[in-house]
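input
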Amino acid sequence: MAQLTMIQAITNALDNALEKDENTLIFGQDVGLTGGVFRATQGLQAKYGEERVFDTPLAESGIGGLAVGLAFENFKPIPEIQFFGFVFETMDAIADQMSRTRYRTGGTRTMPITIRSPFGGGVHAPESHSDSLEGLIAQLPGIKVVIPSNPYDAKGLLLASIEDNDPVIFLEHMKLYRSFKEEVPEEYYTVPLGKAKVVQEGSDVSIVTYGSMVHEALKVAKQLQEEGISVEVIDLRTVSPIDVETIVVSVEKTGRLVVVQEAQRQAGVASTIMAEMAERKRAILALKAPIGRVSAPDSIYPFMLAENDWLPSIQTITDKVKEVFNFDKEAQ
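output
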């Protein structure tokens, strides 16, 4: 196995997909000769040709419409939206076409489209580049939303997304692209969609999170272990649909839950998780304390000089975990 960064794992996955199925196509702004703004598709046009890996005009609405048309013609489109903050230009194709096709056609047609797009803060990007908009798409029935936190999952989840006959939004956190390496098999493999992963087991508090915040949560868990607090960390990996069952099992064990997201409090999927856990048939009766939530504030994403103060931090996560951990003890 090779030691790969997340961006290298994504490139490897795309290479595997193009090699496996000649109907797989990659297109978007600068994805051809240039290899994309982050070089995720570097070398693929030279290997597979301009008819399978090609540039489009700077028009997200056209990229979305092209993907829908190609899917109807039995292709497997993998369009790239250069930054997810620009997804609004293609929302008609996503919300009104891709998501409804299986239902509209009585199950006779599918939309095997995987839209890749970078997002996420902490990289000092310009305005509209870092916004976490996954919650908007997660509210649309018929669309899966996948957010990997590491290179191994990035490759396996991307290949599983491409195999899926329904549309998938595959979001790649920019801060994780080249931040670390791990072993990734060179051969073709998949990681199941819709299945969360317990990345660290614990007994006192459960943290449920995704994307870049997984790594912040693990740092908190390590720090609190030294203080005698055992933290379980769950990486959602797929934020729509949410793997409710894995979270319930964890909460029934720890009795306490903190949900962490980079998105604003009113955005992301934290509120959905909290609502699910608060239902009687889920985990409400297992909770020893109110559910905690850590998020960015409900404001527009700030300019780059202020983003480190705006994003959730190790300290804010730590404070919330301690608050939840101590709730029932202080009440006694």
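quick obs: The chain has a mean pLDDT of 96.
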